[in-house]
Design brief:
Blueprint lengths: L2 E11 L2 H11 L3 E6 L2 E5 L9 E5 L3 E9 L2 H14 L2 E5 L10 E5 L5 E5 L28 E9 L2 H10 L4 E7 L7 E7 L7 E5 L4 E8 L3 H13 L3 E8 L5 E7 L5 E7 L10 E4 L3 H5 L8 H5 L3
Parallel strand pairs: 1-4, 5-8, 9-12, 10-17, 13-16
Antiparallel strand pairs: 1-5, 2-3, 3-4, 6-7, 7-8, 9-13, 10-11, 11-12, 14-15, 15-16
């Protein structure tokens, strides 16, 4: 059974025009389609039809979508999720634009997560035959691809169990109160070889902390920061480095208040990767390794 990657993030926005401007011109995604108050976008190095869906009417997460290796994986996940005690439903091809049959699961934290194998293939901006390393007409920060999401849950340990037992995710890093008597505060989990594909931290159920885009290196992170300054984007934290995942980062907000991140670095994981443990007394260092200070907004603002 194989979950491949985070395929799409679907969020609500208060003003679709402002949101499209942010995601397409500041971040550099391409607007694939817009209809009925919903916009679909993709990054230049993504093969599939879209990776971000913006729906006008509020703020916050609607759902996350994970791509799986085969249609059989949908049945496996469905049976495992039902045994775990979570609610599932099936969506037919076409109920999500450009997406085939979908298994929708309401996970223990209340978030809606979808799983699919089939999605329209549109290719990258540079193609697969003798490709250039990047497109000449790249805009804004020119984010490469959707990378991961961080959600909040009243019971992170239960969420970790779900992702482990139902989806075969593994924790790369964990934040606990005390190793001798651990209470889980946060977990960073992977399904392939990245540092993390999903993270869960203690907080209100069914909320989004952020979703993140991949950039190649520190220079691209800094350039993204310049673009944000030029476009008067509200920056939360950064540029800086994480202790947890070792990633380089900037956190910022879209015009509606949904938090985004640009992220680079990290490390390679795998089935033999030992879980790294951080303790609450080193929280500031774990989250922001250089400044070692976490502002109140970063820990309290979710959508």
């Amino acid at each position: 059974m194989g979950v491949i990657k985070l395929g799409y993030a679907h969020v609500r926005v208060t003003d679709l025009g402002e949101a499209v401007e942010h995601y397409s011109n500041t971040l550099g995604q391409t607007l694939v389609r817009e209809e009925g108050g919903v916009a679909y976008l993709k990054a230049w190095d993504e093969f599939d039809h879209h990776s971000v869906v913006l729906e006008e009417g509020g703020v916050g997460l609607v759902k996350l979508g994970y791509k799986v290796e085969s249609e059989d994986d949908l049945t496996t996940i469905e049976h495992r999720a039902q045994r775990f005690g979570t609610t599932t439903r099936r969506l037919s091809k076409g109920e999500n634009l450009a997406v085939g049959d979908v298994l929708q699961v309401t996970i223990p934290s209340g978030h809606t997560v979808e799983f699919y194998n089939d999605i329209e293939y549109s290719g990258t901006a540079t193609g697969v035959l003798n490709p250039d390393p990047w497109p000449r007409d790249a805009r804004g920060a020119a984010v490469h691809r959707l990378d991961h999401a961080l959600i909040t849950a009243e019971d992170p340990a239960l969420a970790e169990r779900f992702f482990g037992e139902v989806l075969d995710f593994r924790p790369s890093e964990r934040l606990v109160t005390d190793p001798a008597d651990p209470d889980l505060i946060g977990t960073w989990m992977y399904c392939n070889q990245k540092a993390h594909d999903i993270a869960v931290i203690k907080g209100e159920d069914n909320k989004l902390h952020h979703f993140a885009y991949w950039l190649e290196d520190w220079a691209e992170i800094l350039r993204a920061g310049d673009i944000m300054a030029m476009d008067d984007v509200s920056v939360d934290v950064g540029p800086t480095r994480h202790g947890i995942t070792r990633g380089k980062t900037i956190y910022f907000f879209d015009p509606s208040g949904n938090r985004n991140e640009v992220f680079s670095g990290g490390y390679i994981t795998g089935p033999d990767f030992p879980t790294i443990t951080w303790t609450a007394d080193h929280l500031d260092q774990g989250i922001f390794y250089i400044g070692r200070e976490v502002n109140e907004r970063f820990t309290t603002v979710v959508t």
